[in-house]
Amino acid sequence: MGDKRLKLGLTKNVWIMGVVSLLNDLSSEIVYPLVPIFLTSILGAPASVVGLIEGIADASANFFMAISGFVSDKVQKRKPFIVTGYGLSTASKFILSVSFGWPMVLFSRITNRLGKGIRTTARDALIIESTEKTDRGRAFGFHRTLDNVGAILGPILSIVLLKALMGNYRLVFFWAFVPSAIAMLLLFFLTEKKKSSLDLKGMHFEWKKANVSFKLFLLISFIFAIGNSSNAFMILRAQNLGLSVSLTMLVYVLMNVSSSLFSIPAGILADRIGAKRVLSFGFLLFSYVYLMFGMADSSGVVWFLFPAYGLFLALTEGVGKAYLSRLIPHEIAGSAFGLYQVVIGTATFLASFIAGLMWTDISPAAPFIFGSVMAFSAAGLFYLLNRWIKVHPQSQPIPLKR
């Protein structure tokens, strides 16, 4: 690849992206668990508004992941997308610190998630381009590790800042801006390779000729995702069951710790017993966790449910994409994953919007019961899909049209 290796056998770009990810995730996780509490307790917004904000924000990220990945492939440039994406996320922290109404919070969250959507695929592509094939597992593992460190330290620092600043949420949000701004400075040290001569013209995805298993998996993913509302509702549920703000932050830390601890073992398990089994268990675990959130009548169970949800994240975040990758030819993986992100983005918006309405108009338990039913349904359909694939092993791959 031509890039000089530094410590741990990793290139300069990989080290920079790892540290940037740590600082940005640290910043984001100081803010994220406080936003639903800030909205409902300080600004007086109903849960339906929380659902609307989180739904639009998460959907924005998914849609822009699809678009930016395609565009960055076309122009063969990564750094502009990375800098723009992290810049938007940095700006969102400052916007949040001066928010005095929920529309400004909505603007901040959309700005943050747009940043994530714009940078993610370009960042991953730059890591690939900056490493040899034999080092990519190590490079992505290193990046994910530092990302997890930021996700764990962020909520802890959030607790410290909230106490030190006498419960002033806006000041906490302002201080969250600082590590994100430092990360921005590091990005200017990234180096990019010359434009590739690879001709991608005419290469595109044909939906009508896509194999049935791919289409069915998209449908199953949509059904599951429409019940998987924003984690903001778990935070609100913890508050609803009687946890203080500090304890809610602490239990959120446990979720991130659990996700970090189990992410590598989950990947190893998927390699050994198959992604479909791990993903099936993930769907069923989610269904159980959400059912318990819905049925809970005291805060004690929350200390078990948040780490259990972290295990679900570890089981499904990478494994789902690994399963999907087996249903598509690698030449148009970007387009297929882009379509997957659009489907998930649409479902994510609906999930949080529906959850907010259910919380407000029915009960705080309703969104979780609904999510549990949808996840259980998805697990059943996923089982049938794999039975169908077993009976029809010669299903045609998704073709390329040139």
Automatic annotation (TrEMBL):
<feature type="transmembrane region" description="Helical">
    <location>
        <begin position="278"/>
        <end position="296"/>
    </location>
</feature>
<feature type="domain" description="Major facilitator superfamily (MFS) profile">
    <location>
        <begin position="13"/>
        <end position="390"/>
    </location>
</feature>
<protein>
    <submittedName>
        <fullName>Permeases of the major facilitator superfamily</fullName>
    </submittedName>
</protein>
<feature type="transmembrane region" description="Helical">
    <location>
        <begin position="336"/>
        <end position="359"/>
    </location>
</feature>
<dbReference type="GO" id="GO:0022857">
    <property type="term" value="F:transmembrane transporter activity"/>
</dbReference>
<dbReference type="InterPro" id="IPR020846">
    <property type="entry name" value="MFS_dom"/>
</dbReference>
<dbReference type="Pfam" id="PF07690">
    <property type="entry name" value="MFS_1"/>
</dbReference>
<feature type="transmembrane region" description="Helical">
    <location>
        <begin position="212"/>
        <end position="235"/>
    </location>
</feature>
<keyword id="KW-1133">Transmembrane helix</keyword>
<feature type="transmembrane region" description="Helical">
    <location>
        <begin position="172"/>
        <end position="191"/>
    </location>
</feature>
<feature type="transmembrane region" description="Helical">
    <location>
        <begin position="302"/>
        <end position="324"/>
    </location>
</feature>
<keyword id="KW-0812">Transmembrane</keyword>
<keyword id="KW-0472">Membrane</keyword>
<feature type="transmembrane region" description="Helical">
    <location>
        <begin position="365"/>
        <end position="385"/>
    </location>
</feature>
<feature type="transmembrane region" description="Helical">
    <location>
        <begin position="241"/>
        <end position="266"/>
    </location>
</feature>
<dbReference type="InterPro" id="IPR011701">
    <property type="entry name" value="MFS"/>
</dbReference>
<dbReference type="InterPro" id="IPR036259">
    <property type="entry name" value="MFS_trans_sf"/>
</dbReference>
